[in-house]
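W.,

You were right to be curious about this one. When I first looked at the sequence I had no strong expectations either way, so I just let the prediction run and decided to look at it fresh. Below is the sequence, 272 residues in total, followed by the output.
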Amino acid sequence: MAQRFHKMHGLGNDFVVFDAREAPLVMGPARAQAIADRHSGVGCDQLILIERSRVADARMRIWNADGGEVAACGNATRCVALLLGGTPAIETLGGILSSEAIAGGASVDMGAPRFGWDAVPLAYAMDTAALPLAWDGLAPIMAPIALSVGNPHIIFFVPDLDAPDLAAIGPTIEHDPVFPERINVNLATIDSPDRIRLRVWERGAGLTRACGTGACATAVAAIRSGRARSGVTVALPGGELVIDWQPGGTIRMTGPATHVFTGELDMAAFPA
């Protein structure tokens, strides 16, 4: 059976998007992983399934390339908002997100960040604003910061963004037992209060050209610690996002989203 899909990306973070609002589509870890494979499938960082929702305009489900389902993906949310058009409310495992499609992209309210150790989550109680943790190969300016923006992130502010070997360090931190749901690893350098440069090791996907939730988490950590101000530009290898956040409020992320092509996939080749 042929199934229509959209290939989209946000700053190079790419997705295979299925719109299953009219005809339900069975999706699970093995099928998502097979479709995401860049050699024998379509290829993507994340697979996105749009479904009907009883509480919003649409429901978005997200699988990483390794087949793990996750609660949030900022770049994918912008792509879905662009695909749906208008100002859709999008239900996710992390909550309902309001969005607005704009020329060449979208603006999304990503909800409020959570700072409690059990909300990240961590394996045991500690100060998430200054984690008493360290890993070989990292020399951060300050103790790392952890928070949740629908999925878990750890942020290291470093003097030289390119010095740490993120490809080597990322998997070690992602799978550290202190993070029971694994974690996204962010390395950031502050250029000014209005600009941050960022690299991300994304759990279940590895090094990525862009991570929307990583940009949100890093901007919040920088603003909360007095290193940046709201409306900060976060520059990733794939491009730039603008993040607005005031303490006690929700995070607004604005940036590009691109529809690359539409195709059809023989789903019989990818058993559920």
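Here's what jumped out at me. The chain has four helices and 17 strands. And, maybe more interesting for your project: The longest helix spans residues 212-224.

Coffee later to discuss?

I.
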